[in-house]
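seq as requested:
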Amino acid sequence: MSTTERTRALRRRMIGEARRATVEHGLSGFTIEQLCESVGVSRRTFFNHFASKDDAVLGIELHADVEAIDRYAAGGIVAGGLDPLDSIVALAIDQFHRVGIDRADEVLVRRVFEREPALVARFLSATDVQLARITDAVRLRFGWDDPADRRARLVTEAAAGLLKVTAETYFDDAFDEATGPTFDALLTENLRLLRAVTTTEREHTS
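C-alpha coordinates:
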Protein backbone atom coordinates (compact mmCIF):
# COMPACT_ATOMS: atom_id res chain seq x y z
CA MET A 1 0.00 0.00 0.00
CA SER A 2 1.39 3.39 -1.01
CA THR A 3 1.69 6.38 1.32
CA THR A 4 -1.26 8.03 -0.43
CA GLU A 5 -3.39 4.91 -0.01
CA ARG A 6 -2.44 4.63 3.68
CA THR A 7 -3.32 8.30 4.23
CA ARG A 8 -6.66 7.84 2.50
CA ALA A 9 -7.40 4.74 4.56
CA LEU A 10 -6.57 6.60 7.78
CA ARG A 11 -8.87 9.48 6.83
CA ARG A 12 -11.68 7.06 6.09
CA ARG A 13 -11.19 5.41 9.49
CA MET A 14 -11.37 8.78 11.25
CA ILE A 15 -14.44 9.83 9.26
CA GLY A 16 -16.20 6.51 9.86
CA GLU A 17 -15.49 6.56 13.59
CA ALA A 18 -16.60 10.21 13.87
CA ARG A 19 -19.88 9.36 12.15
CA ARG A 20 -20.53 6.28 14.28
CA ALA A 21 -19.82 8.26 17.45
CA THR A 22 -22.18 11.02 16.31
CA VAL A 23 -25.00 8.59 15.59
CA GLU A 24 -24.50 6.90 18.97
CA HIS A 25 -23.74 9.86 21.23
CA GLY A 26 -24.57 13.04 19.31
CA LEU A 27 -22.02 15.58 18.16
CA SER A 28 -21.51 16.96 21.66
CA GLY A 29 -21.36 13.50 23.20
CA PHE A 30 -17.71 12.79 22.39
CA THR A 31 -14.46 14.74 22.19
CA ILE A 32 -11.75 14.90 19.58
CA GLU A 33 -9.45 13.24 22.12
CA GLN A 34 -11.84 10.30 22.46
CA LEU A 35 -12.14 10.06 18.68
CA CYS A 36 -8.34 10.06 18.31
CA GLU A 37 -8.00 7.40 20.98
CA SER A 38 -10.56 5.13 19.32
CA VAL A 39 -8.75 5.40 15.97
CA GLY A 40 -5.26 5.30 17.47
CA VAL A 41 -3.97 8.68 16.28
CA SER A 42 -2.74 11.85 17.97
CA ARG A 43 -4.54 15.21 18.07
CA ARG A 44 -1.81 16.55 15.81
CA THR A 45 -2.53 13.87 13.23
CA PHE A 46 -6.25 14.63 13.44
CA PHE A 47 -5.71 18.34 12.78
CA ASN A 48 -3.40 17.52 9.88
CA HIS A 49 -6.49 16.17 8.13
CA PHE A 50 -9.52 18.00 9.56
CA ALA A 51 -10.15 21.53 10.80
CA SER A 52 -12.80 20.46 13.32
CA LYS A 53 -14.85 17.59 14.66
CA ASP A 54 -17.78 18.68 12.48
CA ASP A 55 -15.57 18.48 9.39
CA ALA A 56 -14.45 14.96 10.31
CA VAL A 57 -18.08 13.86 10.62
CA LEU A 58 -18.93 15.38 7.24
CA GLY A 59 -15.75 14.10 5.59
CA ILE A 60 -14.51 17.60 4.76
CA GLU A 61 -10.77 17.05 4.58
CA LEU A 62 -8.15 19.77 4.66
CA HIS A 63 -6.67 20.34 1.20
CA ALA A 64 -8.79 17.51 -0.20
CA ASP A 65 -8.69 17.19 -3.99
CA VAL A 66 -6.73 20.47 -4.30
CA GLU A 67 -3.96 18.83 -6.30
CA ALA A 68 -6.41 16.92 -8.50
CA ILE A 69 -8.52 20.00 -9.25
CA ASP A 70 -5.40 22.03 -10.02
CA ARG A 71 -4.23 19.31 -12.41
CA TYR A 72 -7.66 19.23 -14.04
CA ALA A 73 -7.57 23.03 -14.48
CA ALA A 74 -4.18 22.70 -16.16
CA GLY A 75 -5.54 20.16 -18.65
CA GLY A 76 -4.74 16.93 -16.80
CA ILE A 77 -6.57 14.11 -14.94
CA VAL A 78 -9.05 13.40 -17.78
CA ALA A 79 -8.68 13.15 -21.56
CA GLY A 80 -7.95 16.44 -23.26
CA GLY A 81 -10.47 16.01 -26.08
CA LEU A 82 -13.56 15.93 -23.86
CA ASP A 83 -16.06 18.76 -23.93
CA PRO A 84 -16.65 20.68 -20.66
CA LEU A 85 -19.58 18.61 -19.37
CA ASP A 86 -17.98 15.28 -20.30
CA SER A 87 -14.75 16.39 -18.64
CA ILE A 88 -16.44 17.21 -15.33
CA VAL A 89 -18.28 13.88 -15.33
CA ALA A 90 -14.97 12.13 -16.04
CA LEU A 91 -13.36 14.10 -13.19
CA ALA A 92 -16.15 13.03 -10.83
CA ILE A 93 -15.69 9.38 -11.81
CA ASP A 94 -11.94 9.70 -11.26
CA GLN A 95 -12.46 11.20 -7.81
CA PHE A 96 -15.03 8.59 -6.81
CA HIS A 97 -12.54 5.87 -7.72
CA ARG A 98 -9.89 7.58 -5.61
CA VAL A 99 -12.15 7.99 -2.59
CA GLY A 100 -14.30 4.91 -3.00
CA ILE A 101 -18.10 4.63 -3.01
CA ASP A 102 -19.67 2.86 -0.05
CA ARG A 103 -23.44 2.45 0.14
CA ALA A 104 -23.24 1.46 3.81
CA ASP A 105 -21.37 4.68 4.56
CA GLU A 106 -24.10 6.70 2.82
CA VAL A 107 -26.66 5.11 5.14
CA LEU A 108 -24.49 6.18 8.06
CA VAL A 109 -24.43 9.76 6.76
CA ARG A 110 -28.22 9.79 6.64
CA ARG A 111 -28.33 8.66 10.25
CA VAL A 112 -25.87 11.42 11.18
CA PHE A 113 -28.16 14.04 9.60
CA GLU A 114 -31.17 12.58 11.42
CA ARG A 115 -29.30 12.84 14.72
CA GLU A 116 -27.74 16.26 14.01
CA PRO A 117 -29.90 18.18 11.48
CA ALA A 118 -27.78 21.32 11.90
CA LEU A 119 -24.95 19.56 10.04
CA VAL A 120 -27.00 19.61 6.82
CA ALA A 121 -26.46 23.35 6.41
CA ARG A 122 -22.73 22.93 7.00
CA PHE A 123 -22.61 20.15 4.41
CA LEU A 124 -24.49 22.24 1.82
CA SER A 125 -22.16 25.18 2.44
CA ALA A 126 -19.12 22.95 1.88
CA THR A 127 -20.71 21.63 -1.31
CA ASP A 128 -21.16 25.17 -2.60
CA VAL A 129 -17.49 25.92 -1.90
CA GLN A 130 -16.43 22.80 -3.80
CA LEU A 131 -18.67 23.67 -6.76
CA ALA A 132 -17.13 27.15 -6.88
CA ARG A 133 -13.63 25.64 -6.96
CA ILE A 134 -14.59 23.30 -9.79
CA THR A 135 -16.23 26.16 -11.69
CA ASP A 136 -12.98 28.11 -11.47
CA ALA A 137 -11.09 25.03 -12.67
CA VAL A 138 -13.41 24.65 -15.67
CA ARG A 139 -12.93 28.33 -16.47
CA LEU A 140 -9.16 27.89 -16.45
CA ARG A 141 -9.17 24.61 -18.38
CA PHE A 142 -11.28 25.95 -21.23
CA GLY A 143 -9.91 29.49 -21.29
CA TRP A 144 -13.15 31.22 -20.34
CA ASP A 145 -11.39 34.20 -18.82
CA ASP A 146 -14.17 36.79 -18.93
CA PRO A 147 -15.72 37.05 -15.42
CA ALA A 148 -19.09 37.70 -17.04
CA ASP A 149 -18.90 34.41 -18.98
CA ARG A 150 -21.48 32.11 -17.36
CA ARG A 151 -20.59 28.93 -19.28
CA ALA A 152 -18.36 27.44 -16.58
CA ARG A 153 -21.03 27.90 -13.92
CA LEU A 154 -23.74 26.48 -16.16
CA VAL A 155 -21.67 23.41 -16.99
CA THR A 156 -20.72 22.82 -13.35
CA GLU A 157 -24.31 23.13 -12.15
CA ALA A 158 -25.46 20.72 -14.87
CA ALA A 159 -22.84 18.21 -13.75
CA ALA A 160 -23.91 18.68 -10.13
CA GLY A 161 -27.49 17.90 -11.15
CA LEU A 162 -26.38 14.74 -12.94
CA LEU A 163 -24.46 13.63 -9.86
CA LYS A 164 -27.41 14.36 -7.57
CA VAL A 165 -29.86 12.32 -9.65
CA THR A 166 -27.34 9.49 -10.01
CA ALA A 167 -26.61 9.41 -6.29
CA GLU A 168 -30.31 9.43 -5.39
CA THR A 169 -30.82 6.38 -7.60
CA TYR A 170 -27.67 4.51 -6.62
CA PHE A 171 -28.02 5.05 -2.87
CA ASP A 172 -31.76 4.42 -2.71
CA ASP A 173 -32.62 1.57 -0.37
CA ALA A 174 -34.48 -0.21 -3.17
CA PHE A 175 -31.45 -0.20 -5.49
CA ASP A 176 -29.98 -3.68 -5.96
CA GLU A 177 -26.21 -3.28 -6.15
CA ALA A 178 -25.79 -6.91 -7.23
CA THR A 179 -27.91 -6.58 -10.38
CA GLY A 180 -27.97 -2.83 -11.00
CA PRO A 181 -25.41 -0.79 -12.91
CA THR A 182 -22.24 0.52 -11.29
CA PHE A 183 -22.17 4.16 -10.20
CA ASP A 184 -19.94 4.98 -13.20
CA ALA A 185 -22.31 3.29 -15.64
CA LEU A 186 -25.37 4.94 -14.11
CA LEU A 187 -23.75 8.39 -14.23
CA THR A 188 -22.65 7.86 -17.84
CA GLU A 189 -26.14 6.71 -18.82
CA ASN A 190 -27.71 9.77 -17.14
CA LEU A 191 -25.31 11.99 -19.09
CA ARG A 192 -26.39 10.24 -22.31
CA LEU A 193 -30.07 10.75 -21.43
CA LEU A 194 -29.50 14.43 -20.69
CA ARG A 195 -27.77 14.96 -24.01
CA ALA A 196 -30.47 12.99 -25.83
CA VAL A 197 -33.33 14.98 -24.37
CA THR A 198 -31.67 18.34 -25.02
CA THR A 199 -30.97 17.29 -28.62
CA THR A 200 -34.58 16.18 -29.01
CA GLU A 201 -35.85 19.47 -27.63
CA ARG A 202 -33.62 21.34 -30.07
CA GLU A 203 -35.00 19.33 -32.99
CA HIS A 204 -38.60 19.97 -31.89
CA THR A 205 -38.07 23.71 -31.70
CA SER A 206 -36.09 24.11 -34.93
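The radius of gyration is 19 Å.
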